[in-house]
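So, is this right?
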Amino acid sequence: MAQVSILDRGQTIARPEFNRWLVPPAALCIHLCIGMAYGFSVFWLPMSHLVTNANAAACAGQGFLAQLTTTTCNWSVPAETHIFETFIAVLGISAAIWGGWLEHAGPRKAGFIAALCWGGGLILGGIGVSVHQLWLVYLGCGLLGGVGQGLGYIAPVSTLIKWFPDRRGLATGFAIMGYGGGAMIGAPLAVWLMARFSHDGIRGVSAALIILGAIYVVVMSIGAFGFRVPPMGWHPEGFTPSEAENEKAMITSRHVHLDRVLKTPQFWLIWLVLCLNVTAGIGVISMASPMLQDVFGVKLIGGGAGLSPVAQKAAIVAAAAGLVGLISLFNSLGRLFWASFSDIIGRKTTYYTFFVLGIVLYVLLPTWGRLGIPGLFVLSICIILSMYGGGFSTVPAYLADIFGTQMVGAIHGRLITAWSVAGIIGPALIAGLRQYELDHGIPHNQVYNLTLYIMAGLLFVGLICNALVKPVEDQHYMSDEELARERALQHEQAGSGGHAASAARGQAGIGTALAWIGVGVPFLIGVWIALAKGAALF
């Protein structure tokens, strides 16, 4: 007799009394933890000052490979920042590789492994900091952490979409909102921990990473064990799939297999749609603070009258730092707003909005710079970043509309490779063009103009790709026999109409309330901190 594990997908099929509104908090437990990826920059400077007695002459000009194993020289910030690129790249690769496995293994097993990889990776990275071995930090935070990022990112998607066929955008928006907001919680906590465990003038980076890793293992595991999947044939009371399909022609009730999805033009068009939207947005994220300082300078602080040059510079940096807090807030809340709005206007129309409005705002940004209006500049960037986040949260529902729900988690995993590509292209493009403009004598307040116009051009290409997305041809859908075999691999059980109705009406009791409070309170604290930082701009 086969041994049954509590991690198996078959052990997560919901009972009649289960309330589907318990699934989004479980997803948020995971995404709020892995969302610390956006806050990792708080470690770079403290990590570059760990060796207090370093011989400056001996360490000068030390290359990247030498820094991986040195114990006597400080690491450079550029050598450290590749950790971020590593786990973002591994995120996309691991999501693509293990997306199909995840559909069969279920969200609980995938979420628990993600907890061990992301949390354990941070712990291993903290050990690497304590023994001053940069290669160990790359192995822990970059490689192992990247696997945890990939599995954790896609683990809730398929489950949420199946629980909320009537509100696909809202459900995925709640979860993926957590990824955008994770840094609002994790970054201030990391800064506090580094200060709390400082000694002899050295920030407590190692302790901060280890403690964060332990916290994330626990919280993500709670989320993983909170997952339940609906029984086969389940749907909310009053919801008829066929009616939804007829209502919006871009929504199908049939399913495309993972092995066939790459053969469809729709997949590659949506891949480009996401890649181009993310390329434009992530480029702004990577340079938001220096961009604001370069374009407006002392105008950010009302001219800086009465301040010394040193005080002026400090005030400008503080004001620009407020933009980073606002970006985190709009990036997070935009994920929920736009994904929910897509339930009303449709996914394709939502992406039309992203591209058309984005083109207008990117073209206007240089104008706000020339006119010296930082308020409109900041507002435009915040709207752009809300659509950047909205692109991430809307795309899972877009995929479910086009390819069906049966393997949407695995399909989403392959699509996330667009993020990995954009994460390299966007920052490199905006930083490279900025340096090119400076090298050719362009004034600091104009060095981003060409870049912003190019970003608008990328969005125009995305607009065309989105317009070309059409329903999938019949030949790509699974037959009834293929669908039955796929569901057998997932150990799905058919549910009666009574089962479905009961699950849809599950009582929103104290357990549901506590679950939402548990994820809501930390998130709201993060929002408050972000607003406090953003207030410096005004």
User: Anything to note?
Assistant: DSSP finds 21 helices and no strands in the chain. Residues 494-506 have pLDDT under 50 and may be disordered. The CA atoms of residues 63 and 79 lie 9 Å apart. The radius of gyration is 24 Å.
